[in-house]
Amino acid sequence: MRPLHLPCPESLLAFGLLIVSLTIVGLTLPFVSNAQSLPENPLPPCPDTPNCERTARPYDVPPDTLFVAAQRALEALDPVTLRVPDSPPGRRAEAVYRVALVFKDDVDVAVRPRADGESALYVRSASRMGYSDLGVNRRRVKRFLEAVESALREDPSSQ
């Protein structure tokens, strides 16, 4: 009977590291390509505090359709104020939301056309006061993006 030869521990470790590395690269490639295909973010960056959330998403609809959906989404979250400035760049909206009847958070939204004729949505939600918001802005951005998706599904012109 032949003796059983097992691979050395170093070979197993190298193989494991290779599998983990390929998995990480495979999982991050779609995000990198989307981020690189978006126009430069027109919204101000977040400060170095955990009370701000800023993100961008590509959409396969025309910019005007996406902007209407974004306005509906902002309204659905019941802002204290909602303003759509008549500025030359266009397709921007600003909303103020009240938290715990005392604190106010600012939400800025911008829609820009992409080179492929589709559009990019930029959103920034930031607390006016304090250091931490206990995840309020992150959850608001998530609800906003869900409301945008819902508004796009309801709008027959976005199909």
The helix-and-strand class reads alpha+beta
- Percent of residues in β-strands: 15-25%
Top CATH class:
Alpha Beta
CATH superfamily: START domain
Question: What is the CATH T-level topology?
Answer: Alpha-D-Glucose-1,6-Bisphosphate, Chain A, domain 4
Number of domains: 1
Helix content: 25-40%
Question: Overall 3D geometry?
Answer: extended
Describe what is shown at a glance.
The protein is α+β, with helices and mostly antiparallel strands and 159 residues long. It contains 3 helices and 5 strands; from the N terminus they run αβαββββα.
Helix and strand layout, with pairings?
Layout: H1 9-37, E1 52-59, H2 63-76, E2 81-83, E3 92-99, E4 103-113, E5 119-127, H3 136-154
Antiparallel strand pairs: 1-5, 2-3, 3-4, 4-5
Helix pairs in contact: 2-3
Structure description:
This protein has 159 residues and is an alpha+beta fold. It has one domain (38-158): START domain (Alpha-D-Glucose-1,6-Bisphosphate, Chain A, domain 4), CATH 3.30.530. Helices cover 39% and strands 25% of the residues. It has helices at 9-37, 63-76, 136-154, and strands spanning 52-59, 81-83, 92-99, 103-113, 119-127. Strands 1-5-4-3-2 form a 5-stranded antiparallel β-sheet, with helices on both faces. Helix 2 (63-76) packs across helix 3.
Can you tag this structure with a few keywords?
159 residues; single chain; Alpha-D-Glucose-1,6-Bisphosphate, Chain A, domain 4; 5-stranded antiparallel β-sheet
